Amino acid sequence: MLWPRAVKSRIKTGGDQEIVRSYPYRSACPSTVWGELTANAAEELFFAGYTNYFLWLDQPQFVATLRWKLDSGCRVRFLLGDPDGDVTRHREQVEDVALSVSTRIRITLEHIGKLGSHEGLEVRYSADEDAVNHVSLSVFRFDGDALVTPHLARLVGHDSPLLHLRKLSTGGLFDRFADHAEELWSRGVDVGETVLVRN
After folding, report:
1. Cα Dmax for the chain
2. How is 56-83 classified by DSSP, letter by letter?
3. Do residues 85 and 131 lie in contact, with contact meaning Cβ atoms separated by under 8 Å?
4. Relative to the CA of 162, which of 25, 99, 139, 153 has its CA 20 to 30 Å away?
5. What is the mean pLDDT of the chain?
């Protein structure tokens, strides 16, 4: 009688089957997880964090890695907040940290600019009406895996929790978050090459 109960308490069932791992802080997720997911993605990388700034710090040679993925036919998308938008300015007041949200976005744009022109590279700002929904939830997709960070109150991204999800079925947790990011993307505004700082 005890054995089935013990097994059930250890084995995931239902919606939580798509949760690979949870972390109380995004910063607690090893950088190797991000690196392996990026390296293993064959079809699509979608970085829908509001600034995506930390990626360039956490991942050695991230520009070179993304260039390699693009050259191998992988689609690479970035959805960013508008550095001059009202939500960005408000978030800067909320966070009240030295490295402002708009600066972090511009650093990401500078790094993206180093990738040069690639057919598979797309960069958009979330639409003004979506920015408040974008800043409160970051979704990073690597083919059938996703890392998701719901931002808590006044905390910056690395202090908020993170879920590692893996798609197992249609309409599960993975799809719910992936669909959210796709909806924001569908209304996003193309950044345009003139905004990217190319070196």
Report:
1. 67
2. HHHSTTHHHHHHHHHHTT-EEEEEE--T
3. yes
4. 99
5. 88
**Helix 31-40, helix 62-71: angle, nearest 10:** 20
Q: What is the pLDDT of residues 9-22, one digit of tens each?
A: 455 556 689 999 99
Neighbours of 49 (CB within 10 A): 27
For residues 111 and 62, the answer to whether their CB atoms sit within 8 Å is yes
Reported pTM: 0.88
Residues with Cβ within 8 Å of residue 159, at least 6 apart in sequence: 25, 26, 27, 152
Question: Which has more pLDDT, 61 or 194?
Answer: 61
φ and ψ at 123, to 5 degrees? Answer: -135, 125
Lowest mean pLDDT across 54-58, 89-93, 171-175: 89-93
